[in-house]
Amino acid sequence: MPMVSRVPVLLLAIAIQGCAHRAPFDPSVQPVVDSLYHAGMAQAAAGDTTAALNTLQEASKLAPQNADILYWRAVILGHTTSLSVEDIPRNILAWRLLERAEGLDRGNARYAIEMGRVRLASPLLRIEAERHFRRALRIAQASGDPLNIAEAAYEIGMIKQRRYSTVRNRYMSNPGQIFDPMMASSRLHYVREYLEQHSHPIDGIGSVERSEAEELFRMALNAVPTHERTAVALLSVLFDQGRFNEMISTVQPFIDANTGSSRIRLAAGLAWYKLGRNTEADSSFKKALELMSPQDREDMESLSRIIRRREAIAYQVLGDSARMHTDSAYWESADPLLSTPENEAWLEFMARNAYSDLYWTDSDMRQTGWRTDRGLIVLRYGEPPVIATFTPENTADAGDAVGRVLTVWRWPVEDMHYVFTGPPAMNVASFAGNFRSLAEDNREDVPFSLRNLAAATNVDSIRMQLARFRAANPNAIRLVVAAAADPSRLYRNAEVADGTLTWSLRMGEPSRLKLLNSDTMQVKLPAPAEASQTWIRDIAPGRYRVRVEALDANIVAAAGRSQDEMEARIFVPGALMLSDILIGYRMNPPEGPISGLSEIALRPRGNLTMQQREQFTMYWENYGLVPDSTGHVNFDVSVVIRLLEIDRSNTGQVGLLLGAISDAVGISPLGDQALGMSYEREELLGSRDRVPQVLNIGLGSSPAGTYQIELTVVDKNTKSTHKVNRIFYLARK
Amino acid sequence: MSKKYAELGSVCTALVLSTLVTATAPLAQAQQGYTEVQPSNTNDGKLKAIGIGAGIGALMAVGYYFVSDHGERSGKCGPWSCALPYLSISGGFAGLFMSRELAAQRRAERPRVGDRLVFASTNYEIPAAPIALGLRDSLLAVATDSGTQVISTASRSAALRRRGSGLSDVRRVAVSGGESQILIGTSSALWETGPTEGLLRRVLEGPVDALATSPTAVVAATGNSIRIRYGVGEDARTDSLAAPGRVTAAAWDEGSGNFWIATDSMLMELSISGSTPVLTPRVAISGTANAVASSANWVAVSLGNDGVAIWSRQALLGGGVTTPTVLRGEPRFAFDLAFLNDVLYVAGGVDGVTKIELSPSVRIVGSSRQAGYATSIASDGTALWIGDSFTGKTRIIRATP
Q: Is the CB of A498 less than 8 angstroms away from the CB of B166?
């Protein structure tokens, strides 16, 4: 209804109210009144507030002295208004109803509380709300009404908290300076320079309001320990000061009583997460999701906010099953360490949602924190390390800052920033200037950053060697997975005499890994050699992702991981084929022909890295060599080793430059053949289905760097040729 | 004539008012020892501020009278009939608003109970937030995420050195008898290292929820299992016994020669007679104990949000009245506690360190806010050592109340 037509109607209604309460009450209509009252309440509960208001108004006409009916009419009116001039008549009506109800039911604090709430929803009159809440608190304390003590204390606390939220992180601009969001989005380094040179933070501002808010919230919780809105408000105050232990104590009554909504569990999860108690955080976040409505849960878990726009469109049309599969694959690949029981990336994602929920969910503003602009940016990039707010300006050329608080977030490492604008003392803000479109542009570059998590988990990259052979079952592939980690690097930060390193191997379809092996080894420190692990498994043909992790959970940052994808194909019987080259520690070659890897004691080198001048052994298997009439196979072997990249990590910038120039003009050994050898071999095939070969290699004084072995085998009986490659590394001695 | 009287009346009124209210409001009292006494008046200095504001206004009016010529003033705002009341009243209002703001700030900063205390102190910066303290004889071990800082409490310089770095999820720390070893409890094991050199060695498997040392034994608890380790190195022997609940805190009681063990519902005494450990339930507690401490006459536990519970040792051990004195509200969250000369000090996070006198009756004396976020506290008999986890200012404070 347009305002012009609504105002007279409501004013008329107010006038009618003024007369109605003087009408005498006929006791015979009480059953009708009760019936209308219950019907109205049911309609309100079902969300049909218009019908509820009409029904309660009918009841009010019959029983004008019924304070309950007046109260609930006022509550519904108050809760269906917004902070706009258009709704003022509605608020006036609610106010009048509450005044009448209070006159009929003196000593009940609920009317004063609602009056305060109506004032909060009335433009220009918000400042008066506190007086009503304080009056309500006095009435409730006098009557010993714990619920209304909690409600009134909560409301006053929220007023204080909103004031605190408005001024916290406040920066003061230097005289004559006004922060300009447009410049912030267009001029390089503007934000950094403004925060560092043209403004300064005001320490301790708002601490009085914060302290008062905390006292009031505690008063409310003393009255009703499971008053949820108060608990959430207190949790945000505690979180702000890093009081995570106290957050846990605050939510404990809810957990003990198995009550409270998802918001409590989200906040608890956030506190546990900040305390480094990932198991408890995981459990709290999962419980929070359980307690959400299906729609909220789906929205919160959706990846569409943290992937690129085009991918998000495709994601949103996925069916339930495909979406679940995608979610699972996404989080698995994002998890820094699969060996830990929790997925740290998912925990970070949920912690960011919980952070936004704690700070910006506001029932008065009908706002869900993690659905706001600020929630979106926190979700993608984490909590901003630098936050600055600027006081509203009153000059016309201040743009977005006129009468509004500007909030600047900055991530110094990434040199990224966002600016938001919102009215003071209301928990609302949206992108300032053209930051909305900037956010979309950034999303295409970095849709989701876990940089803070990577720094916290500090997982090393380790190398692994995958080698595919024909299995005993011709329809399977035998896979050798070898991995190695340098204990002196893994335990570089730890002063421990020994470590307990747990190796795990996971394999599966690229989108779904399964744990296949987990082995624990004791590492004496300082360790003289690298710690290595080898697994041999027969697998079916297909595409696989292989992930190896090494973790000592006792030690900070003693973790490494390696991941690769590969295709496992059947070695076609009858065709000349070569297995992968397996590089191992040097061993003496067998004296006669062998039938397979199990017959020799080759120790694979997981990290594929040898020292300069160190000899190593390469092993491969030839399949499909055709014997001659005497049963012998006859083949040529050619091994060529090339230097792909010189390791210049020990040279300075000048060395790197000179190295690059010498590579370009061809005076460096890059691309040179470091070793070339060929030989012819004839062996009796016998009953073997393969012809394994063992070869020792030494590269003399070749430079440190990345090398490639190119192995070519020619079957002299059939003239067939097959070729395989293997990358390896020479480390500086 | 009447105009002159009116002018004189205005001057007198303003001056008398300002003098009166200034004299009525007590001046801030000088510090008496460690205690900063709060003003006893209930108006939070409101009258004083109004008086000062009005006085300044009156002085400005007097200044105006002397610096302006009579001719200039004719037909304008006169110094006595106009400027004086106007400036006095507006000055009074300014004083009123300022006093309200200052009073709110004072209210926010002062303890809810007792006075604001200031202890003589020395600060020692540490690189990360202190998680726990362990103190024996003259050695203080401070567990942090960046290793354990070892501080000599005897040395005037209290030299810091770092030991046993690299452990993840550190929970507890203690110094063994004879200062021979630093013991560090993590979520996976109990570790041991020398105070000056040597690598960390794992001595007990399993998470450490509570840790305490006596001159001859180490008590480490995991869930409801209590393990007592005697000796060091290869010769060490370990006994185990089960507690009736999850153990949350342990402390060595020098007075009795026994350990106090707190579970989530019970305070117990662990005595080691000969080589047999005996666990004796002493009293039920309501809440989860974060820490236990004892003095010659008292035993106390910190219960987080539930405050501090205090028993007289005599009642606790003699089977008398065992209802504790429970103090809540100050501090709002009791992290840790320690006795110094039969006076109890509680580390209360943002509420700093609260001093509680127990004789002749239990009384909260006040709180010191010198630590921004006090989470741990230990006493060496002459001073308190306070772990301050305040963001960006992590430190150990040596305080002598």
A: no
Task: For residues A516-526, give the mean pLDDT.
Answer: 92
Q: Is the pLDDT of residue A662 over 70?
A: no
Is A242 within 8 Å of chain B by CB? yes
Average the pLDDT over A23-39 and give the result.
80
Nearest chain B CA: its distance from A147 CA (Å)? 21
Cβ of residue A555 closer than 8 Å to a chain B Cβ:
yes
CA–CA dist B105, B116 (Å, integer): 14
Using an 8 Å CB-CB cutoff, list chain A residues near B104: 208, 212
Nearest chain B CA: its distance from A95 CA (Å): 30
One-letter amino acid for residue A697 of the chain: I
Give residue A245's Cα distance to chain centre: 22
Does the pLDDT at position A122 exceed 50?
Answer: yes
| Preceding peptide of B360 cis, ω within 30° | yes
Q: What is the ipTM of this complex?
A: 0.79
Note whether A494 contacts B165, CB cutoff 8 Å.
yes
Q: Report pLDDT digits (tens) over B8-55.
A: 444 444 444 444 333 333 333 322 223 333 334 455 567 777 788 888
First to last CA, chain B: 65
CA angle A344, A348, A351 (to 5 degrees): 135
A-chain residues within 8 Å CB-CB of B105? 208
What band does A14 get if pLDDT is binned at 50, 70 and 90? Answer: very low
Q: Residue B124 is inside which H or E element, if any?
A: strand B120-125
Please answer whether residues A378 and A356 qualify as being in contact, where contact means their C-beta atoms are separated by less than 8 angstroms: yes
Which helix (H) or strand (E) segment holds residue B302: the answer is strand B298-302
- Chain A residue numbers with beta carbons less than 8 Å from the beta carbon of B191 are 496
Contacts of B202 in chain A (CB under 8 A): 498, 554
Of the listed ranges A141-155, A268-282, B41-55, B158-172, the least confidently predicted one is: B41-55
pLDDT digits (tens, 9 = 90+) for A347-393: 999 999 999 999 999 887 789 999 999 999 999 999 999 999 998 88
Subunit contact A494:B166, Cβ cutoff 8 A:
yes
Contacts of A497 in chain B (CB under 8 A): 199-201
Radius of gyration of chain B (CA): 29
Beta carbons of B165 and A250 less than 8 Å apart: no
The Cα–Cα gap between A460 and B258 comes to 46
DSSP A659-718: HHHHHHHT-SSTT-EEEEEEEEEEEE-TT-S-EEEEEEE--TTPPSEEEEEEEEEEETTT
Distance from the Cα of A50 to chain B's closest Cα (Å) equals 44
Angle between helices B84-109 and B2-24 (to 10 degrees): 10
Q: What is the pTM of this model?
A: 0.82
Q: What is the pLDDT of residues A531-542, one digit of tens each?
A: 999 999 999 999
Q: pLDDT grade, residue A25 (50/70/90)?
A: low
